[in-house]
Amino acid sequence: MAETPRTIDVSIGSDGIRLGQFMKFAGLLDSGGDVKEAIIDGFVTVNGEVDRRRGRQLQHDDVVVFDGRGARVRP
After folding, report:
1. Which of 2-16, 33-47, 58-72 has the lowest mean pLDDT?
2. With contact defined as beta carbons under 8 Å apart, do 25 and 17 qualify?
3. What distance in Å separates the CA atoms of residue 5 and residue 39, rounded to the nearest whole number?
4. In this predicted model, what pLDDT tens digit does every residue of 12-53 receive, in sequence order?
5. Are 71 and 64 in contact, with CB atoms under 8 Å apart?
6. Is the pLDDT of residue 8 over 80?
7. Are the C-beta atoms of 25 and 48 separated by less than 8 Å?
8. Which of 71, 61, 57, 49 is nearest to 20 (CA)?
9. How far apart are the C-alpha atoms of 42 and 32, rounded to whole Å?
10. Is 63:47 a contact under the CB 8 Å cutoff?
11. DSSP the chain
12. What was the pLDDT predicted at 43?
């Protein structure tokens, strides 16, 4: 049985944010290069599904998970 990732709420202060930006902002990864590789390689899920689009627009309450850590988009 898969372990549920620890999820933190991250306030973005706007209506939406791109996936790559959010991963750096939330501290899931430090560099844009690392974010790009993780997304392209299929190691990132959004709302439980793998998403390989770095420019995907996230909305409030979307949950991004990478390496057992999760971050929820908050206003």
Report:
1. 2-16
2. yes
3. 18
4. 998 899 999 999 999 999 999 999 999 999 999 999 999 999
5. yes
6. yes
7. no
8. 57
9. 16
10. yes
11. -PPPPEEEEEE-SSSEEEHHHHHHHTTS-SSHHHHHHHHHTT-EEETTEE---TTPEEETT-EEEETTEEEEEE-
12. 98
Q: Which two three-digit tokens encode residue 75?
A: 């206003």
pLDDT of residue 1: 45
Encoded tokens for 15: 């209506």
Q: Among candidates 1, 3, 9, which has minimal Cα distance to 64?
A: 9
Residue 2 has pLDDT above 60, yes or no: no
Integer-rounded Cα radius of gyration of the chain:
11
User: Would you mind telling me the total number of residues written for the chain in this entry?
Assistant: 75
- Between CA 59 and CA 29 the distance in angstroms is 20
